[in-house]
Structure formats: structure tokens, C-alpha cells
Amino acid sequence: MAAAAEGLLHDLEHYENFLNIFNQHQQQVVERVNRKDPFQVYNEAEFRYRYRFSKQTTLELIDILSPTLARHTTRRDALPVHLQVLTALRFYAVGSFQILHGDDALMSQSSVSRVVLDVSTALATLRPRYIQFPRTPQEVLRVQQRFFDYSQFPGVIGAVDCTHVPIQNPGGEQAQRFINRKNTSSLNVQMICDCDGRILNVVARWPGGSHDSRIFRESAIKHQLEAERQDAKWLLGDSGYGCQPYVMTPLLQPANPAEQRYNTAHKRGRCIIERTFGQMKRRFPCLKGLRLKLETTMTTIVAVTVLWNISLERREPEIDGPEVLHEIPGDIRPLPGGRNVEGLIRRDNLIRQHFA
């Protein structure tokens, strides 16, 4: 009898423990279903500061991404699309899984990581829609006119430069390639923007040790411009790119007033891309450092670029805060073979015809 009673008591204790665990799980499910709604919790200013977009623009983003992010599941605790988007936006605004986990303890760090990957992938698929290089004569003329009105430099269809995004070194045999001139690991990301800071082209796959001019030389946009170089249209780049028929670079030693005027107009037009980098990193601080898998990092950079263009399209107010300086200037020394005679002749003709 004593043994039977002891066994019964053990079974009761085991059953009570099971009930406690079950009740805790049920409470977690209820809490997850009833997650706080940031649209209700924060006013407009607090929401914009936290997520970098107005409520209206965020709702439009949710609507755009819903077909991709909707999870067809019967689970009661599945994360709704609007919370997936808000979680990713919050990550782009802080760049840390730890901070996000602290913001909402109901989500594990692994869950946040999965959500950021899903949303970034969905945003990256929108690249053809939001990141477009001018193609039609009307589009080209419009971009050129905006640059001319701003800088008095004719024929410009974009300003090109690279910016380093610090990353977690992926290791392996190629680890050294990601070490940049500051002896840190990064991706060297090439972007081209128009006069309004809208990104027209992005290349986010090169290790930090890659020279800017090599990234451009092997880009699809370079080959496109080379095929069209009979037209009077070009990019503005620093001296590291080397003067090309389709890339106008500054004169290192201007010798007369015409060349000085050329340099002044060139600097004013090219500085747009540097200013854009600073504004992007202020709106999306995750670009100051990403500790993700390499493929996810590349996808996230493209996703943030899409969001940047959406912010301009929706006329989102600029984010207040200290100016984010462009990192160490690009190497102004072009690689051997970067300059060519045709490019120098075209630049000389441009100076003589327009700036003399």
C-alpha cells in the first residue's frame, strides 16, 4: 500500500508539473497573439523616429509586401505581416538583434533574424521596380537637366562612388579579401544616384579590399555606358575611376580659369553621392555595421536601398541627427589602365566647349 501511495503521489506531482508547463505555454500563445500594436502605441513622431517611416508609408509597405510575406499557416501564434515588416524596419533603424530582442521580449533572437531575412528578401525582389537607371531619351534628359540646374555640369546622368558597409568577416580562404584600408572587414558597395539622391544602380557583392575602379570596370552599367559612349552622357566620379569617355573625373592640377570652373561644377555634382551615403546611414543605421551571414548582408543592403528610394518617393522627412561622415575617401589613384586617351580628349573638349 505504501508503495502504491508513493507512486500515486509521484504521478500527481508529474501531472501538476505538466499542467504548469502547459499553462505557461498557453499564456505565451495568448501574449503573442495580443502583441502590442505599434500603430496604436506610438504617436506619429515616435513612430517615425522608431521605424524611419510615417505610419501611412509603412501601411503602404505592408500592403506591397503582404503577398510575399503572408504565411499560410493555421498556427495561432504566427507573426502577422505588419509585425514582420515593423520588426525588419526596426532592425534597419538600430542594426542590432539584441536591441530588438529587448524591445519585444516575446520574440526570440532567432525569430527576429528569420523575419529580417524574409522581409529583406521580399524588398530585394522589388529592386527592378524602385532602382532604375534612366533608359528612355526623356528619362535621360530629365536627369541631365536636374544635374545641370544644380551644378552647371552638362550631360550628367549620375554620380558614382563606393561606400564601405562594415560586416562580420565570413572567414575561410577569402577572408583577407574583405579587409579594407582601415584594417576592418567590410563590403565595398557601389552606388549611382541622380541629383535628388535617388539610387539608380547598386552593386553590393564586392569585398572591402576591392578597388572602386575595379568594381565599376566589371559592372553591367559600365558595359552599358561603353556601348553608348557616342552619346554626350557620363557619370561623375572621383579620380580613382580614371577619366573615361563615360566617366568624367576632376583635374588634379587645374591650369586655367576654365579648368577651375570645370572642377568646381564637377565637385558640386559629385558631392551628391557622398551626401546621399550620409543621409542613408542616418536613416538606416544598420549600414554602419551588419553582423549577418554574407548572403543575407548583401540582400539587406539592396533591401535598404529600395527603402531609401521609397523614402524619397514618399517625401519622408529627413532624419534628424549628427551628420554621418562618408568614410575615408576613395583612393584617388586610378588603377593602371584606368585613364584612356579617348576619355581625356572628351574631357578636354567638354572644358573648351562649355567652361571656357
From TrEMBL:
Keywords: Cytoplasm, Hydrolase, Metal-binding, Nuclease, Nucleus. Its cofactor is a divalent metal cation. It is found in: Cytoplasm; Nucleus. GO terms for cellular component: cytoplasm; nucleus. It holds the Pfam family DDE_Tnp_4. Residues 160-309 form the DDE Tnp4 domain. Its main location: cytoplasm. Signal peptide: none annotated. It comes from the Eukaryota. One of its GO terms (molecular function) is hydrolase activity. Belongs to the HARBI1 family. Transposase-derived protein that may have nuclease activity. Does not have transposase activity. This is Putative nuclease HARBI1. It comes from Strongylocentrotus purpuratus (Purple sea urchin). The lineage of its organism: Eukaryota, Metazoa, Echinodermata, Eleutherozoa, Echinozoa.
